[in-house]
Structures are given as structure tokens and as C-alpha cells.
Amino acid sequence: MQLQRTIKSFIHLGDQSGYIAECLEISVVTQGETLDEVVKNLQEAIALHLEGEDLAEFGLVDDPSVLVTFELQPSYAEA
């Protein structure tokens, strides 16, 4: 089995407000009011989730990077 070098995550608008970040390979979900806050929270949540774990059990290399995809709503100029 080849180990993954990246943890893929997806950030989208929350139902009420702010943003929600979800990882695809590991069970991590977090939120924040701003994009900066949700990215910081995502980094912390991933670190806590993987702390003391054997990353190979998750299919990951020892020092994986995080790939973030944002879903943005288009903003249209009003006439």
C-alpha cells in the first residue's frame, strides 16, 4: 500500500454562518467564523486527531501536508 502525502480537506459555507472544514481521509470536522479562523482550527484539529498515532494506519506518510479546497459563492454586481 502506498502512503498518501496529503490530507485532502474541503471548506464550505456553514448553514447559519461562518465556514465548515471537513477532511476526506480522516474523521476531522471543524468550523470558524472567517476563512483564516477555520484554516487555523483545521490545522489544530488535524494535529490533535493524529497526535501519538501511527500515521501509516491512516494511510499517511510521517509528515503529510494538508490540501484545502474552498467552495466560494459567486458575487454578482447589482444593476
Automatic annotation (TrEMBL):
Gene3D superfamilies, A to Z: 3.30.160.250
Family matches, as SUPFAM superfamilies: TTHA1013/TTHA0281-like
Protein name according to UniProt: Type II toxin-antitoxin system HicB family antitoxin
Organism field: Candidatus Synechococcus calcipolaris G9
